[in-house]
Design goal:
This protein is an alpha+beta fold. It contains 15 helices and 21 strands. Helix 10 crosses helix 11 and helix 11 crosses helix 13.
């Protein structure tokens, strides 16, 4: 149900013809896209499965070929060893020994050489069958200065003539002999390059013991070309590659046309073979494992190389005779995905075709449906413009025809009711105007009430501030009047003394008595330091009068009877005036910290801005605990505006009401302590000055109001902001 509501809200934003066509086009697009995606996904899964089976099958065939490759030399070595043990051949009958090797080597075309090296004197006997060369028998003995002789043979294996010689050949010094002697069992030698055929070879060795004493070692040379030939014949797709390498990374064989050795006829690493797929596979394995010896089981991978994806299977292969090789099969994914990608393109083309057909059908259908609706809409607009005589054709028998008939009936009813509608509207308009006037009057009374209440609080505080200096001025005047009475008494006695002196008939005793009285009063007057005390009292009196004068001046600056006047003022001075007015409210309760910056003049209504500051400072003083409050006043300016920050450490404002504090009549104070108009009017004052006021608060940590005023206010003399001192 909720999804239908969402669809309804979205559909009303588009024309009806779009709403009718778009869902069907969207459904067709989704269906075709999903079908294509599933087809591609299932096709790719099938390819992955087929290639995995293909890689496993190719690997199995290579393993079988390698098993056959090592089985033939080992079988032939076992045959020779049995012949030695049975006495069929021996060093005593060299002719029979040579023909024995000659006869058996012909049964194994992959074997190049079969021979025996004796432990006691280093004698060497064997047979060779190199490609494009006749069969040979070969030997080297101590009596012959260890020169290796190679003879051609007849059809029965007897020497027919010397073919070639090689000096200083002792089989006991050869690597194949030494590795078998050290292993004390049949093993394979390392891969090496044959100096005669210039191909990579490997030797199968078989030590012969009599009881525990080594008699000699049999050896069979096998070329690795046979493995490469097999790999080239083994199809790995159209362009796939196979390779075999040792655990140290040296290449054994590959299906590549490139030779597995370098210019010096030395074995090369698989990663150095100039075959991109094999290089990429070995580099990937190097990155994946770090060391080829860590490959302990067969794994299949999918990797990227030059923006192409490849399938790889690497399988370790081991033999009981010491061979530890790795079999690799690399297949390009694109080769198997070509047909699937072609099908995907066909699917995309079909999707575009079906979308186009569906779009055309949808457009024609929507036109057939929406044309009468557009006519209905046009008729409704004409009725809205006062053209009441509108009739739609009703010949259709479907829902749209029924809607047209209903519309015609509605038009007739509207014409009947419109005659009385204007009179009712006028009556309702008069009622609303009357209610609006009453509402404006009530609002003005509430604002005036708020102003008067706040003004009363302010006047009470100012009266208290004036009463304090006025009290001690009055007291100082009383004390000064008493001191003046004392001075008047002294002057009166001096005056009588002077009169007695200037009269010639004064009594001597009366004169002496008057002098004594004057001296007594004078001494008393000076001892009490009456003049100094009077001077101090007059100074205190003048200070008190100055305090009263400053308070009156600040009060005048704050109130400014010409409230609509626009002036250029320094807001730092306005803040000081407000602090003076609010001194009685914040003293002993709030510590005021001033952080004034250098401010340019701001064009504004000073009295209204003072009211905003007083509202914010008053609210801050009411939000803090007595004796623990802290009020930070900070001002700054930039190229466009002046900022005034008023921050307290009070109780803060809850988050749920923070967005409502500028609403009229909203207050968080208890009933009877506020009307909720102070911040609303302050917000309106700042807004009418072209500025803005922001607030940030956290419960338990305080509140910060920031007032932004432009240097040149948009306020004019003819549009003063509302008045309030709340």
């Amino acid at each position: 149900m909720q999804s239908l509501n969402v669809f309804s809200r979205l559909s009303v934003r588009f024309p009806l013809r779009v709403t009718l066509v778009a869902p069907f086009l969207l459904l067709i697009f989704i269906a075709v896209t999903l079908t294509g995606f599933l087809s591609l996904s299932h096709g790719e899964q099938a390819v992955n499965k087929v290639t995995a089976q293909l890689r496993s099958e190719i690997t199995a065939r290579i393993e079988d070929r390698l098993q056959t490759f090592i089985a033939e030399p080992q079988t032939l070595n076992q045959t020779h060893a049995n012949a030695f043990k049975l006495g069929e051949i021996s060093l005593a009958d060299t002719s029979t020994l040579e023909r024995h090797f000659w006869q058996y080597i012909q049964n194994f075309p992959a074997i190049y050489s079969s021979y025996y090296g004796d432990e006691r004197d280093g004698a060497f006997y064997g047979a060779n069958q190199y490609p494009d060369m006749p069969l040979q028998v070969t030997f080297a003995t101590e009596e012959g200065n260890r020169v290796m002789y190679k003879y051609k043979t007849d059809e029965e294996g007897f020497r027919t003539g010397e073919a070639s010689t090689e000096p200083s050949y002792d089989p006991r010094n050869r690597p194949w002999y030494q590795v078998a002697k050290a292993a004390e069992k049949p093993v394979w030698s390392d891969i090496y390059s044959d100096f005669s055929t210039k191909t990579l070879m490997i030797t199968a060795t078989y030590p012969i013991y009599q009881e525990t004493e080594l008699q000699g070692i049999l050896g069979i040379d096998v070329t690795l070309n046979t493995i490469s030939d097999f790999l080239r014949k083994l199809k790995a797709g159209e362009t796939g590659k196979t390779f075999v390498m040792e655990e140290n990374g040296l290449l054994v064989a590959s299906s590549s046309k490139h030779a597995p050795y370098d210019e010096k006829n030395e074995p090369i690493a698989a990663s150095a073979l100039p075959e991109p797929m094999i290089q990429a596979a070995t580099q990937f394995l190097q990155t994946e494992y770090g060391d080829f010896k860590k490959i302990q089981k067969g794994n299949q991978f999918e990797f990227q190389y030059e923006n192409e994806t490849y399938y790889l299977q690497i399988t370790p292969w081991h033999s009981d005779t010491g061979l530890n090789w790795l079999i690799g099969v690399v297949l390009p994914k694109a080769e198997f995905m070509a047909e699937i990608n072609a099908n995907s393109i066909n699917t995309l083309i079909l999707m575009v075709v079906f979308l186009f057909i569906a779009m055309m059908v949808g457009i024609l259908t929507s036109r057939w449906v929406t044309k009468p609706l557009r006519d209905l809409n046009a008729a409704a607009n004409r009725i809205a413009n006062g053209e009441w005589d509108q009739n739609l054709p009703t010949e259709r028998g479907d829902e749209i025809g029924q809607l047209a008939r209903t519309f015609n009936n509605m038009g007739e009813q509207l014409r009947a009711h419109f005659a009385t509608l204007e009179q009712r509207v006028e009556e309702r308009t008069r009622e609303l105007a009357t209610a609006y006037k009453r509402l404006k009057s009530s609002q003005a009374q509430l604002v005036q009430s708020e102003k008067m209440a706040s003004l009363g609080q302010m006047v009470a505080g100012v009266a208290h501030e004036i009463n304090t200096p006025l009290g001690y001025v009055k007291n100082n005047v009383e004390m000064t009047r008493r001191l003046l009475n004392q001075a008047e008494e002294v002057l009166s006695e001096y005056h009588q003394l002077v009169q007695m002196l200037v009269s010639g008939s004064v009594d001597e005793e009366a004169l002496q008595a008057q002098i004594a009285k004057v001296m007594e009063l004078g001494n008393e007057f000076f001892e009490e330091d009456t003049f100094s005390e009077t001077n101090e009292l007059l100074k205190d009196t003048l200070y008190g009068i100055e305090q009263i004068s400053d308070l009156v001046v600040n009060l005048r600056n704050f109130s400014r009877l010409d409230q609509a006047r626009i002036a250029d003022v320094n807001l730092n001075e306005n803040l000081d005036s407000v602090l003076t007015i609010a001194h009685n409210m914040i003293k002993h309760k709030v510590e005021v910290v001033k952080q004034y910056g250098e401010l340019p003049p701001v064009s504004c209504s000073p009295s209204q801005i003072n009211q905003v500051f007083l509202n914010l400072i008053t609210n801050a003083s009411q939000a803090v605990k007595e004796g623990e409050g802290r009020l930070i006043l900070k001002t700054s300016a930039d190229e466009k505006a002046v900022q005034v920050s008023i921050q307290d450490n009070g109780s803060g404002i809850p988050k749920e009401v923070l967005s409502k504090i500028f609403d009229p009549f909203f207050t968080t104070k208890p009933v009877g302590e506020g009307t909720g108009l102070g911040l609303s009017i302050s917000h309106q004052i700042v807004h009418q000055h072209g500025g803005k006021i922001k607030v940030a608060s956290e419960e338990g940590k305080g509140t910060r109001f920031v007032v932004f005023l432009p240097r040149q206010s948009k306020l004019t003399q003819s549009s003063p902001p509302p008045q309030s001192t709340a």
